[in-house]
Amino acid sequence: MKHLQLVFLRHGHCQGGDILRGKTNVPLSENGLIQMQQAFASLLTLPDVVYSSSLKRCLQFSDLIAKQHQLPIKVLDGLQEIDFGEWDGQTWQTLYQKHEPQLTEYWSNPWDIKHTPPKAEYLGDFSARVQAAVSQIIWQMLQRSAAEPESYKEDSIPSALIVTHGGVMRCIMAAILGVEQAAGIFSQFHLPYAALFHVDVFVDGQYLENVDQDTFAFKNLSVRLNWPALSDSSQG
To answer: Domain coordinates of the chain in residue numbers?
Structure first.
């Protein structure tokens, strides 16, 4: 049984004002960078590798951390936030003034494809994209641990820091908890800037013998969500 750890970190506060950020590419604010640095400082150990969304509000911090700690970094478009289409980048005030009924329907049940904003990414497709990206990360970690065992600290669990977005993290939570069709994880669950959680991944050796990179899937793995951060699970 292979054991890996994925540490998910949401980006911090951003520049650009009170807007609906999906693929709108805005940088972190000064406070947002501080938020992420504080969250990272709470980790008990350094990750072995950094994976990052390619959007500025994630990559800005990921590049900084990778350089400071001499960690390998990989950028994946699959870790980007959901694309809100014609609503993307608009202020919340404008959206409520122009599209309040549609906005209310969307947040009440974003899994219903009929509620998807114009030219936006359907949430079901987004969830599949996110799970594919995380599957790719796990596969690469397994291949690296097998090919380069010297890359990992002795007796340590291979770990990756995944710097990404609130929507991505909610999709992973929903998949782990088996609530992918629950609207509440998007409309009623608060995930603050620089939120941090980690996931233990357990991969059966027999499963690995019967799959390749194309068929390897996050949904077929044994996983455990740990909140809010890396900690001693025996404590309270």
So the answer is: 2-226
CATH 3.40.50.1820 at 2-226, yes or no = no
Judge whether 135 and 51 are in contact, CB under 8 Å. Answer: no
Residues 185, 179: Cα–Cα separation, whole Å: 8
**Residue 25 Cα to chain centre, angstroms:** 17
pLDDT digits (tens, 9 = 90+) for 104-144: 999 999 999 999 999 999 999 999 999 999 999 999 999 98
- Sign of CA pseudo-dihedral 181, 182, 183, 185: negative
- Strands 73-76, 49-53: pairing is parallel
d(CA 193, CA 10) in angstroms, rounded, equals: 6
Query: Are 87 and 120 in contact, with CB atoms under 8 Å apart?
Result: yes
pLDDT digits (tens, 9 = 90+) for 113-123: 999 999 999 99
With helix as H, strand as E and coil as C, how does 190-231 read?
Answer: CCCCCCEEEEEEEECHHHHHCCCCCCCCHHHCEEEEECCCCC
DSSP string, 17-83: -SB--SS---PBPHHHHHHHHHHHHT-SS--SEEEEESSHHHHHHHHHHHHHHT--EEEEGGGSPPP
Residue whose entry in the numeric block shows the structure tokens 């013998």:
209
Residue with tokens 């799959």: 211
